[in-house]
Amino acid sequence: MKVAVILPAAGMGTRMGRGVAETTGLSRKQFMLLDGSPILVHTVRKFASSSRVSEIVVAVRGEDIEWVEQMLRNEVRGAPIRVVEGGNSRQQSVENAFLSLAPDTDLVAVHDAVRPFVELDTIAHVIDEAAAHGAAIVGIVPVDTVKQVGAASEGGAKIRSTILRERLVLAQTPQVFRYELLKRAFDAARADNFVGTDESSLVERLDQEVTVVLGSDRNIKITKPGDMDLAHLFLERETAPHS
What we know:
The protein is an alpha/beta fold. The chain has seven helices and eleven strands. It has helices at 39-48, 65-75, 90-99, 120-133, 179-192, 199-204, 227-239, and strands at 3-8, 33-34, 37-38, 55-60, 81-85, 107-110, 135-140, 146-149, 159-163, 170-178, 211-214. The chain has a seven-stranded mixed beta sheet with strand order 5-4-1-6-10-7-11, with helices on both faces. Strands 2-3 form a two-stranded antiparallel ribbon. It has a two-stranded antiparallel ribbon with strand order 8-9.
C-alpha cells in the first residue's frame, strides 16, 4: 500500500511572535528550534521512521524551497522526501502538494508540520482505519465542559446551552483519506469556493463518514510561545533512555 504524507509548512506563524528562528532569520513556528533542530525536522523524522509511510511531501513558501530541501537532506533519514511550493492558505498548500502525488497513491495523510509528538502507533492506527473505511482522523475528547453562546454583547456573551462532551471531538492530525476521495473533495471545494478548517471538513461535504481514532494530549500543535515549554518537556521524555 502506497501512503503519502503531506506536511503543510508555508504558514507565517503570526501567533508565535518574532525572532524565534535564529538559524534562518525567520519568525515562523515551523522553524523554531527544539533541541537544536527546527520543529519541522522533528515532525518529518517521526513520519520518516514509520514503516507505513512511502513518501513525504513538505509544502513551503517558494523562497524557502532550496534551503529546506538541503536541511531535510542533511537531518532526516528514512522515507523519500520532496519539497514543493505551498500556497497562501493551508488548503492551497495541501492541494498543491496533493497535485504532485502519483495517481497510484493509495492513501494520503495530512499532518500539521508543528505536531512533532504524534506517536508511531497512532500513525499506523489511523492509516489502517482510512484503508478500511476511506477516511479517518485523529481526535481527542475534550476534558472541559463546553458551552454554546450567543452573540457577544456589551456585558459579554450569554450561554445558550451546555453541549455533552461525549458528542464532541477535538480534531488533531494525521487526517488520512483514500487518494480518489481527497481528490473529489478538493475538486468540490474549488468548484464551490469553499474553504475548510481542515481536510476532514472538505471530505465531510461529500457525505463521507470519517472515522475518529483516539489521539493523545501529547500530540500538541505548537502555535504559541508557551507551547514550547511543553514541547521541551515532551521531547525530553520521548528521548530519555528507557530502563
